[in-house]
Write a structure and sequence with these properties.
Length: 451
């Protein structure tokens, strides 16, 4: 009779490696859902500036000054994250109660309606209607948080980093594809409103795809039977935000995303101010930094199978700090491209570390609300980055990237402290086992499974 293979045998290792390559049907659907969602969101982004700032677009009367046009452009862009700041936790909390799939479909339908209203405002040259559409979009745009909660529902602790990394790849891919499609559609048709209608259609297609293919998770099944999921301890968003087990992780999230938002908010400004880059050259740079981000998502999932999450946080934010700081030194495109590698890879590994940390710390009954709060904090960092950056650019645009690097270093140090705190109980238990007689282990809570 052949001897059983050990857990570390080559055959078992091969099986585990093969399983890592497989994607569950639910994760495949979530990947497509997140990709379509981000592509639809980013699709209209290239047309806002030409529509509102160029007099020949005819959107504003010729009497409207350039300063007024820029102010209204800022309002149009800023109203979306402002509403998302409150809408994402609301939708996430509802998904904890009424089921993920139901709230995901509600979110996608609301976003599609917002795009339709926005497209109508573009066609009618109505700023008020466009603002209303952007408000509806922002309030209902909680689908990323719900998708992450669904991924957490079907994942073990070991699988969660890989599944979250997969969603991160979908987001970055959507950010590359969406603006390219939007720019070309506006250029080919000459009608900016077509971009809005296309975005609405893409999100509706996303909702139909999710309805037909997305399997019900455990919380969806419970919601179908009882009308809502089993009762759990309910916390307000503020109570969950300041909860002792989540507060340090949310602080690390803010430090991480302040770095990301400072970098991308003043990315184009630095390139135009330093190199006088054209819109086409700016688009090339955006693609160049997106490619390392997708690679970083894959690399982060591989690292997560070998290292703990705090190591990912330390490495990711350390590498990101180097890339962000080096960005202000090169004099040529090839030099800039080299800085995109550590910046992009570090950002996605850092984002993976913060999102997985929050998800693992939250209970199963609070996944939607916790991930909604996580997404709302990333949006709040956009506002914080603008406020902080506006003060720094009065001195020099380069100071914004120095501040971003400092914030990333602080986040890496925070993960280092978290790692030491997690190691202390293990060290204490090891010392107790060494100095307390074995017969007394059970009395002091040191018994081990199987003994």
């Amino acid at each position: 009779m052949p001897a059983p293979q050990s857990a570390s045998s080559p055959a078992n290792e091969l099986v585990r490696g093969y399983r890592r390559l497989l994607i569950s049907p639910t994760m495949a659907v979530l990947f497509v859902t997140v990709f379509l969602s981000v592509a639809g969101f980013s699709l209209p982004s290239p047309v806002f500036a030409p529509l509102l700032l160029e007099p020949q677009s005819g959107f504003f009367d010729l009497s409207v000054t350039d300063v007024e046009r820029k102010i209204w452009l800022g309002v149009l862009i800023g109203i979306y994250p402002l509403l998302q700041l409150f809408g994402a936790p609301w939708l996430g909390r509802l998904s904890d109660v009424y089921g993920r799939k139901r709230m995901l479909l509600l979110s996608l339908t609301g976003v599609a309606a917002g795009y339709g209203v926005m497209a109508l405002g573009m066609a009618q040259h109505s700023l008020a209607v466009m603002l209303l559409g952007r408000m509806v979009e922002g309030w209902f745009c909680g689908n990323i948080a719900i998708a992450q909660a669904m991924a957490a529902d079907i994942s073990s602790h070991e699988e969660r980093p890989r599944h979250f990394a997969l969603l991160s790849i979908a987001m970055n891919l959507g950010w590359v594809v969406g603006p390219i499609i939007g720019g070309y559609v506006a250029s080919w048709t000459g009608d900016f409103s077509m971009v809005g209608w296309l975005a609405a259609g893409l999100v509706l297609l996303n909702a139909l795809f999710a309805q037909l293919t997305l399997q019900q998770g455990p919380r969806d099944i419970a919601a179908c039977v009882t009308g809502h999921t089993p009762p759990a301890i309910q916390h307000s968003n503020w109570q969950l935000l300041i909860a002792a087990h989540l507060r340090p992780l949310f602080i690390l999230t803010v430090l991480s995303y302040v770095t990301v938002q400072l970098y991308f908010t003043y990315f184009n400004m630095w390139l135009v101010d330093r190199f006088t880059y054209s819109p086409v050259e700016l688009a090339h740079c955006a693609v160049l930094v997106s490619l390392p981000m997708m690679f970083g998502s894959w690399l982060g999932s591989r690292m997560a199978s070998r290292f703990d999450n705090t190591t990912l946080g330390i490495v990711g934010h350390g590498v990101m700090a180097v890339g962000v700081l080096l960005f202000i030194f090169p004099e040529h495109l090839w030099g800039l491209a080299l800085t995109f590698l550590p910046a992009g890879i570090g950002m996605t590994i850092g984002e993976l570390a913060t999102s997985v940390a929050v998800s693992k710390a939250a209970s199963a009954q609070q996944q939607g609300q916790a991930m909604g709060l996580y997404r709302s904090l990333t949006v709040a960092c956009e506002i914080l980055a603008v406020v902080l950056g506006s003060a720094l650019v009065l001195f020099d645009v380069g100071f914004t990237f120095i501040a971003a690097a400092i914030s990333s270093v602080l986040c890496a140090l925070g993960f280092l402290r978290l790692r030491r705190q997690q190691a202390q109980p293990q060290v204490s238990e090891l010392l107790l086992r060494r100095h307390i007689p074995r017969v007394l282990w059970k009395d002091v809570g040191l018994e081990r499974k199987g003994e």
